Structure formats: structure tokens, C-alpha cells
């Protein structure tokens, strides 16, 4: 019977049935799976798979974003002023190949992540917590150690977000002996240098993953993946025995599949298309928390002369420091019609936030001023900018957006219309650009103005506030925004474990950001997901966006 069930599931990879079997979950998304190596898992598509094949020391408790519970650990304690964390590990846990998980595996997993620290990986924020200065093998050994069977982390300084970072999907435990056998790093210093910064997206471990999760990989190709329940799983046995992930690029095809019952969960399109899914058997769960933050970046030091036109305020271009004048940034902020965007793009389901931090996260301050669409205020600030030269001579601004991103295009064109209506000498050119090129150019500080979004790596305000507002943050090269007070407050927030003190500091940053207007905050969407009625375990009450964007829960917690 087990063999027959597996054959049926394999057939499903290429042949649609009238309805998926009760023990099988079929998910359809628009993208391929970049990697199954935890160290490189830094995209939502890979994360949806890896979080079910592998496990971390800690996980989020239920739908909470602030409460953590043990997973591969059974308990932990902090000491030494928050600079030492000691974890008791779960006993009797098996990897998919039958090996028993040990402390050596856990130590190796984190040392491997710290050692590789690829530019395309999530590991930068683990290094930030555990390593001071350059990464060396001696520092790896000191940062992560096994002592009497316990896993011990030693931090150079306290990090209030450290535990949340350990719940990130990529911080999973891998099998040391197995990894070395298939050609991965063997854990020895003598062979370590060749692995520093290495791109492991297509690593041996990605091709043949071996985790402790409730599901193990059976088969994977360019468009399909099949996983089955792991018979040796240490936890509760899942009701879903087979999971099929299918790449279906056409939105219309995904919609038809879930209507027919060929798919249980799909990646939906924008809210404006939801009416197409109003059909029997489909459950649209709306009003879910949005844990992303999106904004127009106004680059204060543009590093691409080809996007500057004349490079002067002569009506034929802009200077490289165009957005360094706070009056320009404030004028642009008053020129965006937030209410219209919520009404027309988000169909009334949008929230104007006070800061670039999800309103469900600790540290979010509701009582901070926000900008509103006000052409008179925009005009006043434009007239003050650059001592009146901007208003007198005008400008030409080139603004690129991600090709195919309808919401970003609409937002950009809305801003363009409003700005050009203020002064006929103002010109904004809105141009579509391929996503990979746009990302690289913005990372290099080339883009004058661009729309970008950040999704959380871990449920802590630091992952947004430092990323967006610090001059040492991940997004600094894209905005070149720097303020001494903001930097000081963010560093202070990293140095204290007091939640009230951190919240107070983040509110100070938000108020200062309102004054300096480094970003135009695009209203946040209200999230939703689409599943078949018969799929149980997906609900508002169970939904945790840090686990999975579509279901808010792991495969093992679903049933039909």
C-alpha cells in the first residue's frame, strides 16, 4: 500500500487528477526552488521547502511573533549578561538517512554557516551576533562549542534578537558526517579556506538534503518536487504523507487548478484578482497580518551618471545629491496620494504605517506622525529646495521599477502624475527594469529612486529598524541616509535587553524619520491566502507569517 501511494503521488507530478488524494498535499507556485541547502536559504520559495525537511533549535509558539519554544533543543538558558546561551538538545532525533543527531552536528551546522557566510546568504545576521571583526577559524570554535553534550554559544556582546535569529529557517541542523561524505566541508580547519564565501545554492547538500524534519525529499526536477513523511520522525506523525510542489508560472492555470481540486494551496495573484476565485470549494482567508515593509527609496548619493541626465539643476537632469536636501524628500513625501493608493490598488484593504516596521511587531509606535497627500505642502517644500533653484529650473528624474510588478508601477506613475502637476518644469520618467538588474544597481547605489520591500528574517524590530535606518544597515547603500542620532539610538537598542527601553528608542527613530523623510512609506497590504475547503489547519487563529506565507503553518500540522 505504501508503494502504491508513492506511485500515485509521483504520477501527480505530471498528471492532474480530479482531486488530490486525502493523504497528499499539492502546492502550486510561480517560481522555481533556488536551493535546498539551509545555509543558502534566503528566499521564501526555498524556505517553504527547507522548513519542512530540516529543523531549528527553536521555533515560534503557535501564531506568536514574540514567544519561542524548543524544537531540536529541549531547553536553554542565558548567562554572562546575555553573552552566553546554553542549549540542551533533544535526544533520539534521527536524520533522514538514519543517523542520530548529536551536539557535534549542531556545532558543525553553525560553524559551517559562519564559515561560508556567502554574500547571497542569510548568515550575515548570525555572524553579526557571534563574530567580532573578520571571521577566523579560532573565532568559530569560540563562538559555538559542545560542552558536556550541551551546545554553547558565546557572543562578543549581548544581542536581544539572538534567540529569534536561531528560529530562522536557514539556522537548521545538518548531519556532519553525511555532509562530509557527499563532498561538503568536513569541519576541519585545514579544509576551511576554500569554503569561505562559497555559493552553495547548488551544493551537494542542496541536491541530496538530509534533515530531521517531518518530511524527506523523494524527487526534484526543474518544475516539481515530491516529499514524503519521514517514518523515523521524532515528533507526532503527520496526516499528510505526500507533498507535491509544482511550478506553474501562469496565474490563470493555478486558479483553474485549485477550482478543479488539482491543487490544495496556490500562490495567489494580487487582491484585484480574488473575485476570480469566488467559487465552491475554495477558502479565501483574508485579514492576515502583513509582516513586510515597502517604500520608495530616495538615494542621497546617486552613483550612476547615466541616470542623472545633465547632472545639474538646469531642468535637464538632477545632481547626484538631489535627495540630500530634506526639502526635496519632504516634498516627494507630500506628493504621494496614500489614500488613493489604498482605495485603487489595495481595494480599501491597506494600512498606512508610521514607520518601516510591521504593526504586529514589538516596537511599533502608533502615535507617530505620518505624511498625507498635500500638494500645497509639497509645493512649499519644493520652493525651499536648493535655495529656490529647483523650483526655478525644474528637474528630470529617472525612476525605475521592477518589470511586471503592477502595484509598483501604479505607485510610481501615481507619484509621477502628482509631482508633474505641481510644476510643468518637473519631469519624472518611470521605466520598467528587470528585477535582477534593478537589485544589483540599487545595491550599488546607482538607482536615484526605487521601490523595495523587506520581509523579516526573524521576528524582532531590529531586523527592520537597523536594516532601513542605520548607516551600517543592509539597505544603506541604496538610500545613503545617515543621521548621527538615529545611529546612536539603534546601537543603544541593540545593546539592551529591556523591551520597554528598546520600544522607546525605536519610537525616537520613527519620529526622527518623520522629520527627515528618508523614505516614502507605501501603505501595507492586508494579507490573504487561498486554499481548498477540505484542507484543515489553515486559519487566522493558526496562521504565523514567520512560518509560511501561504499556510502560516508547517505541512505536518495540516490534514484533510
From TrEMBL:
Claim: Methyltransferase is one of the keywords in the record: no
GO biological process, one term: peptide transport
Family matches, as InterPro entries: Peptide/Ni-bd, SBP_5, SBP_5_dom
GO molecular function, one term: peptide transmembrane transporter activity
GO cellular component: ATP-binding cassette (ABC) transporter complex; periplasmic space
Key word Signal present: yes
Keywords: Signal
Annotated signal peptide: 1-18
Solute-binding protein family domain boundaries: 67-474
PANTHER family assigned to the protein according to its UniProt record, in alphabetical order: ABC TRANSPORTER, PERIPLASMIC OLIGO-PEPTIDE BINDING PROTEIN, PUTATIVE-RELATED (PTHR30290:SF34), PERIPLASMIC BINDING COMPONENT OF ABC TRANSPORTER (PTHR30290)
Protein name: Peptide/nickel transport system substrate-binding protein
Organismal lineage: Bacteria, Thermotogati, Deinococcota, Deinococci, Deinococcales
